Amino acid sequence: MVDSGRRRDVPDRRAGPAALDQAAGPALACYLSRAGYSVTVVERAAALRDSGYAVDFRGDAVSVLAELGILDEVRGHRTGMRGTTLVDDDGVAVDQWGPDVFGGDLEVPKRALTAILHRLTADTVTYIFGDTITALRQQESGVAVEFAHRPPSKFDLVVGADGMYSAVRALAFGPHERFLRHLGMSGAGFSTANFLGLDHTGLLQPSGTTAVYLFGGDPDDRLTVSLSFATESPELDRRDRRAQEDAVRSAFAGRGWEIPRLLDAMSRADDYYFASTGQVEVDQWHRGRVVLVGDAGYCAAPTSGSGTSQALIGARTLARALAGSGYEDAFTAYERQLRPFVAQNQAAGRAAASMFGGGTVGAP
């Protein structure tokens, strides 16, 4: 979470984007620190996150990287993926997609982006790891914030940039259930030995209400696996691993090709994870001095292919709005400018969910 900020040219004006999103949070912190704010980022994790597979940048998001001065450095971490082959139930190729379909204009490992953005802001932004926000009380002159471990403090503004299950949003706007839209699909992810010999390429096998996506990159001896299937709710996210694996096996029961081998590898994987795909829909992204940016306010789902790009563009839009006016007008301008872009991305995310096994799209 981004904690306090004081704009040096405006005495006693303090701003605090709150809670770290791996793209929106540090990008916004960079923009605000350059504008004269003193920013502190508070992150729940004990250390800088070094997880995740790949993120991609599309369209105007590339110009955000250029503005931040990191475009060439980010380009140096390209994944080098060369495309994806669609296969039928027997594993026979039926179509070929270029690298831009999943990789956008530029694709890099998530850990590389996280490290670059942290390095970019490390000298101008204070990072506090291993803590989280527990209470918000809005007052006429600012927001009183309580934390799990550090003493309470007061800030001019609080920005929730803490992802789909945002603690800031829950405290300032209401429970998650009011804002989360399940897109009808869940799935398991893990890695195993690259027994297919995929060399910076992917395989996608969509079949009815299930989909298998495999890709091999760096390191070249590992195969990344995604097994997704239709679900009616994200209830499985709260179940234990055994129940989740049972659901995956049930969804893929009787399937041929490499499915039995992949299901066997799933049980042995030490990097197994399970997640449901959803979106965040909030009718207004700000409440008083609290505002949301990135997935906390408008997650478009991984199926949109625009999550990181949307987060970066959202951070820039909010920073520019704050630079031009007081927070009330800035928050209004931010929403007015960004909502059409978000609506387009969320529509794409809903449409693409069906290709990966998504079923009926439920309302929040």
CATH superfamily of the largest domain: FAD/NAD(P)-binding domain
Shape: globular
CATH topology of the largest domain: FAD/NAD(P)-binding domain
Radius of gyration: 21 Å
Can you name the CATH architecture of the largest domain? 3-Layer(bba) Sandwich
Q: Compute the number of strand runs.
A: 18
Mean pLDDT: 88
End-to-end separation in angstroms reads 26 Å
Strand order of the largest sheet: 5-4-13-14-15-12-16
Number of helices: 11
Please mark out the parts with pLDDT under 50 across 5 or more consecutive residues, or reply none.
Answer: 1-20, 360-364
Give a quick precis of the structure.
By secondary structure, this protein is of the alpha+beta class. It has helices spanning 24-34, 61-68, 71-75, 100-103, 110-121, 167-172, 241-251, 259-268, 295-298, 307-324, 327-353, and strands at 16-18, 39-43, 54-57, 84-87, 93-97, 106-109, 125-129, 133-139, 142-147, 153-155, 158-160, 180-193, 201-207, 210-216, 222-230, 273-280, 286-287, 290-292. The strands form five sheets. The chain has a seven-stranded mixed β-sheet with strand order 5-4-13-14-15-12-16, with helices on both faces.
